[in-house]
Amino acid sequence: MSYLDLDYLQDLPGGDDFEDVTDLFDQAANDMNEGQFVLTDGFTLMDAMSAFEIGEPRMDSGMIIESEQRPPFDPLAPLLPQELCWILDRSFACEMEWHAGNTLSQTVYTLLHVHHLSDIDPDVMMQEYGIEDPLRPQGLVTIALRAGVLGLIKSCDMAWRELSKGKIADTEDWQSEKCDISLMEGVPVEYAIQNLNDACIWVHSAQLSPEDRDSITNRLLLRKALLELFRLDVTAHLDNLNPLIRIARNHLNTILTQPQVPTPVPGSPALLAIDPHITRRLHNFIPIRMLELPDQDQVWASIDQLLKDWEELDKLLHSGSISAWDVGGLLGVWSPNRPLPVPFIRALAQTAFYDKNFFFGIRPLGWIVDRFFLESTGFSFDSIQMAVSSGWVNPQKLSFRDFEKHVAKIMTQHIRSYYFNRPRRRRFLMKSMVDWQQLVDSLQNLTTQLVITDPHTSIVISALPSIGRTWQLTIAREIIMSGFQQELYSSHERPISYWYAAKVMELHLAVNEKFQPAVRSDSPAYAELIFQSNFLTALRLMCLAICAITFKEPPISREQLGLAYKRRYKWNFVLTFPDNREERLVSIPDLDVFFEAVKDLAHSSTEDMWKNANEILSSLAQSDLEDFWDTRTARERLQFVRELANTCEQFLCFLRETEGSPLDISKLAWDPSKNPWFPIILKS
Fold this sequence. Notes:
The chain is mostly helical. The protein has helices at residues 3-10, 22-28, 45-50, 81-99, 139-163, 189-205, 210-231, 241-257, 296-319, 322-334, 343-353, 366-377, 381-390, 401-417, 422-447, 455-462, 464-485, 494-515, 524-550, 558-568, 591-602, 606-620, 631-657, and strands spanning 354-355, 358-359, 668-669, 680-681. The chain folds into two domains: 81-309, no CATH class; 320-681, no CATH class. It is built from 23 helices and four strands. The strands form two sheets. The protein has a two-stranded antiparallel sheet. Strands 3-4 form a two-stranded antiparallel ribbon. The longest helix is centred in the C-terminal third of the chain and has 27 residues, at 524-550. The radius of gyration is 32 Å and the shape is globular. The N and C termini lie far apart (85 Å). 36% of the residues are buried.
């Protein structure tokens, strides 16, 4: 032993007087079965677990049993072209599972080549890896696979940078933990793209079959297109977004038209490239379960949906209308067959809409204020400012600065909320009720300090508080109806919730009627107001009809029901608006009023309610698209209206089939994946 070795041992914590007891423990464990353990008297399993450091990341990782033993991984193991394609396909699977909300250690890091990029870099390899097999050219690993893996890592890096801006919730929507493993942050994206280009050139020059060349090239080009999409600044280079989407979709469609790559045969080195147990060797905050990657068909479907989400964002960015973002967001929330966009798209949409004091990267803060009033009344904010200034009688100087900031803030937050996850959005809407009430109060305060002689201008200005009121009532309706989508209501709560939603819509209709004379009749704002009034009328009838059908005496006392009701709708209590009691949406929930209302509904014809709602919705579905601010979102909304009309028809058939006999409520099932608000009718 050298002097240096002795010096090293002297520095060991606790000194160097240790005895190797490995053989002793091995001998003692020979007669034990797997999973068996021995405890001394008075020493429990809890005591053993308490001996570990609290928060030790690998405490529950578990041992590697014999069936999970794997041969050593060789990153330079030669691959067949089909094996390379399989690994590239699974790299897309790893990426999409990370975007689905799993950790990097469960997904991307399970591709072992991610950890061995330097080992397969042809620029630093000292020599060729043995004798090259003509069926397995070394370039398939060192050039093609390395380029694909590098593109994967940089795609994750670009997505991670957008996700980490705080627009969506870490550990709730996505997982940011990198496990102390680099995502090649210091490597320029252009370098990764150049590697992909070089790999495509090499593949076409290699001694491969035309089918293998096309299969590998299409996967590398798809990776390149996705990487360029992930790194694109959509606000600065919006014109590049749609061409890149089309390129990616073309490569994806080409891959889908080709025969599916088979799973490598047992013993293939490609199978060793994915190790789901890699989490045992990584620095995780908490022990995590092994994740099974989805089938490749599901992976391609996920990429296709990702491209659709990008296309949706592209259309919204080209619309330049608040209504387009608002209606598009509502349809995204309402439509049961539209999946929630991946966290990256939701973060990107929020950044694209508003970032660094600009909307869409170019429009100033005043833009959203002007659109808010223009799309609500048909009149620009400048014209409203002039009318207010001319009628101002308060001796204090008139300033719109704070008012504009408040409108911009609540509208920006409201549009962004469409890209929150569903429970977080519902909580946000509850909190935003106070902000909208403050806007209503400020508009009311403004109108009381004006003297306007022109009758028409006076009508417009006096109706300004109704703008904030309509938004507030819309949000209240959304809060209540979202409870059905998130399955928050118990069976005895549902009738009350439908009734309460109907009361909110009743008040909303009254505000719309008061507001209608102030809206410019030749503008899309007027068409939108009429549409909303008709839509609310039909939806209110549907809610009342369901309330009447599903109501039965609750299994708890009315006192208990009242307490539960107050907890459910605490966002609308008097304490929320202590200075504006008369401005509450609905008075303090009074169950006596509800039970009286249900008695009246019991004597009403629910069939007439469904029939009238169906007629209104069917008529709305024929609306002229050109009447609205954005024709694309208007078309999608009319399709949703048709689906609601179909719901009315189904209930009409249900009532007619059971005419003369009690309704079988057990045939009604609330399934948010089929209908966001109303029950579906089960077939016998």
